[in-house]
Amino acid sequence: MMFAPACFAVLMAGGAAGPALTPEPLQTNCADRGCHDVILTGALQTLHKPTRMGKCKACHRGPGPEVKAAGHPQNVWMVKNAGPCRGCHGTIVHGMKTARMVHGALTAEACLACHAPHSTLRPHLLRVATDAEACSQCHALPDYKFVHSPVAADACLSCHTPHFSDNRSLLARVGRELCARCHDPKERPHGPAAVDCLTCHAPHGGNKRRLLRIDNAPDAAP
């Protein structure tokens, strides 16, 4: 299943602001020492705030005495994949505790499966070009004869939220409220449509026109 931009900008940014970051002196900024300057090179569209502020230790452990003696902080790395992320992205942490549905990648603390930790050419620190490309790494769809337009447009977040939701399948809304964001129900007044459009229609695609689920539906336009 592919997920796709209602709520996305807020959720991907983490919602509430994290702790204030004060830029560290140049001598403690790893990216300016000549070893990790690749992090800041290129036409980068998005820099992670700690990276931009030179606040490496916001996410990385400091070197222990034995490593300092060796002259290089080889043991500097994240305590846990999502550990440092929790310290700043409080809204997402709160959502994980209170929402009925949480994205599996988030539950597995695999933030870096979708997001780059330092910098990227993509918005929201995404590793890939589009939301759908990120989703398709785990949620593959079959080749449908007829495809729902948001799926065809790589707009998974038109219907789904990326991190958590109180609705099944991480839907932004449920039933006719979700579909009515694009499809005016007044155009096709019908009994089941008053409850849940998915009673008759498939959400992503199908081999029947109008994405109908029923077996005796025509598979081509008349």
Give a quick rundown of the structure.
This protein is mainly alpha-helical. The chain has a domain at 8-143.
Provide structural commentary.
The two termini are 30 Å apart. Mean pLDDT is 76; it is low at 1-17. The longest helix is centred in the middle third of the chain and has 9 residues, at 90-98. The protein has a domain at 8-143. It contains 9 helices and 6 strands. With 222 residues, the protein is mainly alpha-helical. The protein has helices at 8-13, 49-52, 65-70, 83-88, 90-98, 104-107, 131-136, 149-152, 175-179, and strands at 46-47, 101-102, 119-120, 146-147, 164-165, 205-206.
Structure keywords:
222 residues, mainly alpha, two-stranded antiparallel sheet, disordered N terminus
Distance between the termini: 30 Å
Mean pLDDT: 76
- H-E string: HEHHHHEHEHEHEHE
Estimated share of beta-strand residues: 5-15%
Strand order of the largest sheet: 1-3
Q: Considering DSSP H and I runs of 4 or more, what fraction of the residues is helical?
A: 10-25%
Low-confidence spans: pLDDT under 50, at least 5 residues? 1-17
In total, the number of strands is: 6
Helical run tally:
9
Largest sheet: 2 strands, antiparallel
Tell me the radius of gyration: 22 Å
Structural class assignment:
mainly alpha
What would the principal axes of the Cα set say about the shape?
elongated
Give the helices and strands, then pairings.
Blueprint: H1 8-13, E1 46-47, H2 49-52, H3 65-70, H4 83-88, H5 90-98, E2 101-102, H6 104-107, E3 119-120, H7 131-136, E4 146-147, H8 149-152, E5 164-165, H9 175-179, E6 205-206
Antiparallel strand pairs: 1-3, 2-5, 4-6
